[in-house]
Amino acid sequence: MSVDVGIDLGTTSILVYIRGRGVVVKEPSVVAFDRSVNKITAIGEEARQMLGRTPGNIVAIRPVKEGVISNFTLTAELLKYFINKAIGRKTWRKPRVCISVPTLATEVEKRAVEDAAIRAGAREVFTIEEPIASAIGVGIDVSKPVGNLIVDVGGGTTDVAVISLNGAVESTSIKTAGEDFDKELAYYIRKEHNLLIGQNTAEQIKMKIGSLFKRDEVAIMEVSGRDLMSGLPRMVEVSSDETRMCFEDLSEQVIQAIQTTLERTPPELAADIAYRGIVLSGGGSLIDGFDDMIEARTGISVVRAEEPMTAVAVGTGQYMERIK
Fold it and tell me: How far apart are CA 123 and CA 83, in angstroms?
């Protein structure tokens, strides 16, 4: 029998949903490639552990950047690996696959995703915009003539969309998301503390003490890295207040995207949003105070999805059921 597969093809993570089983795969979308023998050596979590730790002949690559494919061959291999891992058994027919894409993805970018999935072994491929998939995944009935504002903060893009009657009435997509918060944090620590840290360390700081809104109690974390002056390992303390100041410019870009979308929204749908609030999803939304910051700046209540990381993956899978 054939299997229907829903995939959240993110810049930092890939999640695979199987009907009746839920999200069965959740791993980093990283491929380790050995250039000396032109061969893939690791995929997923194993490859992520190699970021910043590989010899010269091995490179750890994210084949999806800012929500679109940057390396077609490696993306196809990535999809093939995770589809086979998710299914876990041989089927009589190739699976049907639904993959999420950014709101403003071009037809060429969508076609690249479809071709990569076909090459990975899919029988039939559908694409769905990430905010719509996210809305379906959190349980919103998108078929009704009611306005819902979805803010999906992924690893490579932040998608903002007003959804009604199964489509995006107004939408904005910006290339400011989780990875940018990591890079900004690494740059800040390098500038303020003369300490060089890796991407994985920056992500850990972001998730443990990172904040976009003033906390009642300041959190402190010890961070290890390489001193830029001496070249020796050193440890410094970083506070949640520092991360908040560091993230100000990036959070302002997200607010601008939300405000731009609201300004273009028809008044009837804007009234629905004022009553129903904003739904926040995506792995990037897990930064502490993201919902409070948006609520304070827009004056509209914000609800974070119960499972923001898996909302898009679940939505792609449930969309497949609707097609069927």
Answer: 12
